[in-house]
Structures are given as C-alpha cells and as structure tokens.
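Hi support team,

I've been running sequence recovery on a batch of backbones for a student project. Most finish fine, but this one hangs at about 90% for roughly twenty minutes before it completes. I'm not sure whether the input is malformed or the queue is just slow. I've pasted the structure tokens below so you can try to reproduce it. Let me know if you need the job ID as well.

Thanks,
M.K.
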C-alpha cells in the first residue's frame, strides 16, 4: 500500500472493501428487510468459528474511495449495513457522514473491540470473549447479539447484557456449524429468560448472501 493510500485509509477516506451487495438482512432486529451491505476487510478478533475468515487480512482487500462506496450503496437502498471483518478497525466518520448526507440510515454490526467512530442509526453489538468491547459502546448499542457455541456462552451473554442500556434488544444466536445442537438449548433458555429473543441466520436458510 503506497504511503498516500495509507494516509487516506487512516483518515477513513478510503476503506479496504471486501464486498458490497444488496440483499435481505438475515439476522437480529431488522431481519427480513432489504438493505445494502458493505463488508470491510480487516479483523484481529479471530473467532475460531468465523464464517468470513477471508475478511481478516485487510491487505487482501483493495482500498476503495469512500465516496465510491457511498455512491454504490445509495443507488440500491436507503438502509446501509456496515459489517466485516471488524469495521471499527477503521475510522467510520467519513463513510457515515457521506451516507447520512444522502439520506441513508446507517447500521453497523461490530464486536465493539475498537473505539466507536461514525454516526449510527442502529448499532448491533456482537461481543466476543477473545477481545471484549470498549466500555463506551455498551450504552450506545441498540441490539446485543450473542453467539452461542456452547453452554458457557449463556453466562457470557448475561455478563454482556448487564452492561447495555435497558432499551437494548437482547438476542441469542446459534453458531451455524453447531445449530442443531445449540438451538434446543437456546429455545429452553429464552423460555426461562424471556428478556432474550432468538436470532437465526435466516439468510442461510433462504440461500442468499
């Protein structure tokens, strides 16, 4: 990466774009609604069950002018979901400012492992044990989505839920590769603890991105 490009990436005027696509939101509070997804490369959180490990190495994804990302997104939808990788690895100020100037609603899916930047209409916080969220993001999160891979994840989810606001919507989502094993556990847990809701990766059942 050339020095001038590195500077633009650091400033958020370019971002390592892995992919962008228009589809149906498959998870959480906004599931079933159309949205434009912008997947930003780069993540050092390193969840062993991550289903987009190809996003981890930012160097594999070309730095793309933020203005171009904005233009592409608003051509398709007024709801733009920024995901990764871990998008908060990068400064999201320019991207969200540009999207909002075009009338778009800005959503982010993040582990919260890095400081919160950007202006967001909806923050989905999906914390990971290996690199916990910055404290500041808990009070900003609109949605807490905890992935359940084994029984210990319920305790972790409760620890995370204790730190978000009362208005934050709480979700437990089965990790896809063990879904048949953990879905019954999640159903039982939510029935006993109805402050939680079940989130499923419905886009995978629909066979869409």
């Amino acid at each position: 990466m050339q020095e001038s490009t590195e500077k633009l990436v650091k400033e958020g005027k370019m971002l390592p774009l892995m992919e962008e696509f228009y589809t149906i939101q498959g998870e959480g509070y906004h599931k079933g609604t159309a949205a434009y997804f912008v997947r930003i490369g780069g993540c050092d959180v390193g969840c062993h069950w991550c289903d987009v490990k190809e996003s981890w190495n930012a160097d594999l994804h070309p730095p793309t002018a933020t203005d171009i990302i904005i233009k592409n997104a608003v051509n398709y939808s007024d709801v733009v979901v920024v995901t990764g990788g871990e998008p908060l690895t990068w400064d999201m100020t320019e991207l969200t400012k540009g999207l909002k100037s075009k009338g778009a609603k800005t959503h982010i899916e993040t582990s919260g492992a890095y400081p919160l930047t950007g202006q967001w209409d909806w923050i989905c916080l999906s914390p990971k044990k290996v690199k916990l969220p910055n404290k500041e993001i808990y009070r900003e999160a609109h949605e807490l989505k905890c992935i359940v891979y084994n029984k210990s994840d319920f305790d972790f989810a409760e620890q995370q839920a204790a730190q978000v606001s009362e208005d934050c919507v709480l979700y437990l989502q089965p990790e896809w590769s063990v879904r048949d094993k953990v879905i019954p556990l999640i159903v039982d847990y939510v029935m006993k603890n109805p402050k939680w809701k079940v989130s499923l990766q419905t886009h995978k059942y629909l066979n869409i991105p």
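--
Follow-up from support: It reproduced on our side and the slowdown came from queue contention, not your input. The mean pLDDT is 96. No action needed from you.
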